[in-house]
Amino acid sequence: MAHAGTPDTAAPRAEARSVTTLEDELARQDQALLDLSHAGTVAVSLVHCPTTSREATLVRKLAQRARTQNYVTAQVSLLEASFDTFEQLVRMVIESLFAPGATRPGGLLQLLDRYWERRGSRSAERFEEAAAELGAQGDLTALCHAYLLADGDARTELRAYHAWLDGTEPGKRSKNPAVRSALNPHTAQRALGELSRLVVALGATGLAIFLHDGDAVTRRTARQREKAYTVLRELVDNFDSGNGALNTRILITGTDRLFEGPRSLRSLRPLLARLEIASDAEPPPPHRSWTSLIRDPYEYVHRAVERAPDTKRAALRTLIRISQGLPPLEAVTSMSVGHERIDRGIDRLFEHADASGSVFTALVGDYGTGKTHLLMHLAERALSDNHPVFWLNLERLNLDLGNPARHFYRLLEHSLMPLRRRPSALERATHWTRSQVKLRQLIATLEELSEQQGDAALVAKRAVQIARSARDAGAALESFLSGRDLRERSAAKGYRQDAYRRLLLWLELLGRLEGARGPVVLIDEAENLYTSGASRSARRAALRSLAFYCGGALPNACVVIAMTPPALKQLRRESKELLAEVDEQSGTLEWEDATMFRRRLQRLTPEEVPEFSKKQRQELAAVVRATHQSVRGAIEFEGWDAKVKAVTARYESPRAVIRALVDELESAWWAGG
Q: 616: closest CA among 380, 315, 319, 339?
């Protein structure tokens, strides 16, 4: 199975030059901005600069050039900002927005004022239409709409805007009931994605963000440095999923201190792994994630900026994401070989889930063999078959797997609904509760459910009571469905029960309001139960939650857990003892059926990731080249067969092979073919 996911964890090779001049960087950005706006996606890149003065010149010229292409820009100095949390980053970006044609940055309000000057009295109406078409919905959209609606005196709207930006939660008697939460750690990523869509709704082509003076991060304490690198990793890893950012390029710059040494970004291996240079190909293509600016003359000549065919936007998105070391969000099978056996297994899973009520299996494979890609392949199949998909990634056990009250919100945030634009469940809650027509439908459905029996009926009855007693029924229901009141709760029995019941309610609502079928729950990187230093008690609490998801409590669910073979062996070995302890705990819920989970775990025949054979490597190379040709056109590549042989010998995993081959092809195309 081929995988276009995150790269191997090796550091960038010393001999990989990946060097550019200022003029080359400007040209690379021109092509990158055109590609991103055409494909409607996002990319994050770094530039290693020789001096701070060269860095300042580069950022200034890149920002000016982006604005000439009708991009809104934001320049944020990491020397002047603490950069400790994601919401701080979002706040700084919003306040430093620079409109095309403006003489100085004026923030989001500047964009709104210029839009009102162009559109006049119809500005609010046209903005609302454009935002809806682009999928921009949420608190920031509501604030912008209210500001445009204000007739001359917008003091109230300005106070609400600044309160949101400062993180002040709206009061119960807020003047704008459509604003339901402030900018905070839970809303920041959605707010940045929403901002990128608002920028386009206001008439710009896209958003270019420049985070410069990166050396400042290395001068902070170890704890502050860890926080800053974590924010960078969130940008690289998580700012691109679902209905996230649109037409956005983020560039991070610094000198030697940021890129070399024990305090550099090399100190965070997972971040470094996402940004490594995939191949030694020169010149660096437009979407390579890491380049170095040099003073010396540069011998390469690049092609003129060129637009990809309109019919190949999805394939272009795939190429961009692969170049960034990220898996595609759609058409995963376009970069796959050898998945026929897995497809047959997926068909069986769906059939068993429909027939028997639920099914649970394990997907096993060593690091880099393509487990995540197989899960994405399964997710794509599920969405096309009208199943909602819920992801639980155990990359970090601090995601509170053992505390469903806390991870419930993240489960909804990282879900995909089988609907246009693949919104998350949280976005669907916004959609249901911010339209009066949809809200009436939602309340009617909840009332109908509340008259029935079962756990979903119990929580539906509670939701109806909340809606009837609330001053703003839509806001109250959005908060309840999103589990905002659960985010800081403990793992006590009552809170776990509440979280499980709300998930069951979600499945009922998705079936009744959207016609969705049973859920698919994908639990990735489960080997971290044993490789991250989790204590015995933490593993026991995690297994208690897994007993709910994997033990048959979710109706018509297909649950797949992915892990390495040694981790599965350890899980099976200790599950008897740990799950017996779960069963004996007085606080264990009936849904957390440890006995059923243990029985299923011991009896299942795991699905092994298919071996990546020599023949499949050759097939994969042909698939990669055909996909690239469909986007960029035919190019001459002297010594292609030898290059394929070298790449497949150098990299063992399909995901690394794909990224390296795409990088080689993109470089050859950028050089003029």
A: 339
Task: Out of 126-130, 580-584, 608-612, pick the least confident.
Answer: 580-584
Could you give the CA distance from residue 15 to residue 266 in angstroms, rounded to a whole number? 17
pTM of the shown model? 0.83
The SS3 assignment for 415 reads strand
Question: pLDDT digits over 260-305, tens only?
Answer: 999 998 887 777 777 778 888 989 999 999 999 986 666 667 899 9
Domain extent listing, the chain: 340-608
CA 378 – CA 521 distance, rounded (Å)? 10
Q: Is residue 275 within 8 Å of 237, Cβ to Cβ?
A: no
Per the document, the length of the chain is 673
Structure tokens at 43: 């990319």
Nearest to 190 by CA among 142, 144, 145, 139: 139
Cis peptide before 283 (omega within 30 of 0): yes
Q: What stretches of 488-558 show up as alpha helix (H) in DSSP?
A: 493-514, 528-531, 536-550
CA dist., res. 88 & res. 90, Å (int): 5
* Ordered DSSP codes for 196-261: HHHHHHTT-SEEEEEEE-THHHHTS-HHHHHHHHHHHHHHHHHTTSSS---SEEEEEEE-HHHHSS
Radius of gyration from C-alpha coordinates of the chain: 25
Instruction: Give all strands (DSSP E) within 582-637, no chain letters.
Output: 607-608
Residue 578 has pLDDT above 90, yes or no: no
Quote the CA–CA distance of 560 and 304 in Å, as a whole number: 46
Q: What is the dihedral of CA 618, 624, 627, 631, to 10 degrees?
A: -140
Q: 97-156: per-residue pLDDT in tens?
A: 999 999 999 999 999 999 999 998 899 999 999 999 998 888 999 999 999 999 778 889
Query: Residue 167: what are its φ and ψ, rounded to 5°?
Result: 90, 15
